[in-house]
Amino acid sequence: MTIKLNDNRPMVLEHQVIRFETAQSWNKGKGNLNHPGTGNGGINYPNDPYTGPHKGNGGGNSNGNNGNGNN
Amino acid sequence: MTQYIKKRNYEAVQLDDQWIILNTDQFTVTKLNDLGGYCWTLLDSPQTVERMTQLVEEKYHLDNNFLSSNIEEFLQELIEYGLVQHAV
Questions:
Q1: Cα angle at A12 between A4 and B35, to 5 degrees?
Q2: Residues A9, B71: contact at Cβ < 8 Å?
Q3: CB neighbourhood size of B29 (10 A)
Q4: Which position among B61, B74, B75, B87 has the lowest Cβ density within 10 Å, counted as fewest Cβ atoms?
Q5: End-to-end CA distance of chain B
């Protein structure tokens, strides 16, 4: 994808398809696991959730406190 | 004389001197330069290439002898991306 730098005419700089995941994506969540859609060829949640050990904190920097309440 | 118009009033966001058009029918994102964004706003109503050329020249005072054909190419590209159609 190239970005042209000639601005004395109207130009399309980029054009791309949006890709995103939905409730019918690969990993189980906490929501409805019996989705009626067929977006994944009719197969809903083929992978069981990972239950093994996790290394570290996933790179996050949260202290685990959500909200802004006074403690 | 061929007239052009937006296929639908897709969401458009202006960021500095660029415009981002969200085609919610085809799930595409199209980024335009400032001049392209201005042309996009003109297409709320049917426009000919000649009229658009005139309006762009009035607003931007360009030194571009090929502006008319540039605009036509631009419109063809937007038609290809499903954003613009010929006005009936």
A1: 90
A2: yes
A3: 14
A4: B61
A5: 11
Q: What are phi and psi of A15, to 5 degrees?
A: -150, 120
Q: Please list every residue in chain B whose beta carbon sits closer than 8 Å to the beta carbon of residue A10.
A: 32-33, 35-36, 38-39, 56, 70-71, 74
User: Could you tell me the pTM of the whole model?
Assistant: 0.66
Q: Beta-carbon neighbour count of residue B64 at 10 Å?
A: 17
**Residue B33 near residue A13, CB atoms below 8 Å:** yes
pLDDT (tens digit per residue) in A27-57:
655 666 666 666 666 666 667 777 888 776 6
Chain A's closest residue to B33, CA to CA, is: A11
